[in-house]
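Notebook, bench 3.
Goal today: get a predicted structure for Small ribosomal subunit biogenesis GTPase RsgA from Actinomadura rubrisoli so we can plan the truncation constructs. The sequence was checked against the plasmid map this morning, with no discrepancies at the termini. Length recorded as 358 residues. Pasting the sequence as submitted so the record is complete.
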Amino acid sequence: MSFASTGSSPLAAYGWDEALENDFTPHRAAGLTPARVIAVDRGLCDVVTEDGPLRAGTGPIASSDPMAAPCTGDWAALRPGDQPVLAALLPRRTAIVRSTVSRDSHGQVLAANVDTVAITVSLAAKLDLGRVERLLALAWESGARPVVVLTKADHVPGTADAEAEVAAAAPGVDVVACSATTGDGVDVVAAVLSGTVVLVGPSGAGKSTLGNALLGAETLATGAVRDQDGKGRHTTVRRELLPLPGGGVLIDTPGLRGVGLWDAADGLQQTFAEIEELAAHCRFGDCAHRAEPGCAVLAAIEDGTLQRRRLDSYHKLLRENAWAASRTDARLRAERQNQWKAITKWQRQMYKARGRDR
């Protein structure tokens, strides 16, 4: 069964479209079938196919590189049979990537082929704009569209001030508030989300509660939050993809205690778009916006059109991203050196063998 021949694939509800069908042509010719990865767990994964859900192995495409390993949201070519297995991953349209928890030189894909990143921020906890900006950089860099959702609106008398404060830290991004508990504003949130939606944010931000409200059922596990700091336990233990009743699919993610940037230069430019625009008017092209004469960014801080906090956050995230890039460059250089050493060693052994043959 194909998208082209039927006019609509059962996978259409999960995001399958004609462009994907065209890209899949050589895989169909090889006897493979399309599948979308719902969840990954210890070398196995749950997938949905044209014939329904099943469990598949990942052996042929397993990789020690976190960037190359299959993840929730991936489209894959499945080899059917008594023991189904993923034979290949389709190129990712978008990917949410952070540095690995160990902060080594590799990136880790949190979700693939995402259209909308819903950054959840709890109004029941102290507002952390730096965290919002960090997640926005991650979202913009992925190629998806970010939206900031202020949850637990029933915990505060009004949301206008918080919405304005977050909007100032999220230029060009929709900021909406809701209470998943009472249902207020959930319809507004649903209206700004489209396609494959991923919920990201710290534990206790209300991701799973919001997810249940959007799904219309108590599908996702939820947990209590500590009163003293607004933090919760990781009730979501793995990333999982679920169809939304109004169309599209939802990916819930475990709470992110820390989100390290990984190759997010473009995402930072979009997150701090007003600073980038001001920087174009600085006297010096390499202005660092610290104490240089003729700095348009510092002038904007002086006249009150730009907050000092925004510039400090910008500098902090730029430093972190540069450090991550340097680690990656060092790893790639070491890998190239190891490859050349292996080639040189093989050549020496070959020449010695040839000499003995003579």
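The two ends are 61 Å apart (CA to CA). DSSP finds eleven helices and 13 strands in the chain.
Flagging this for group meeting.
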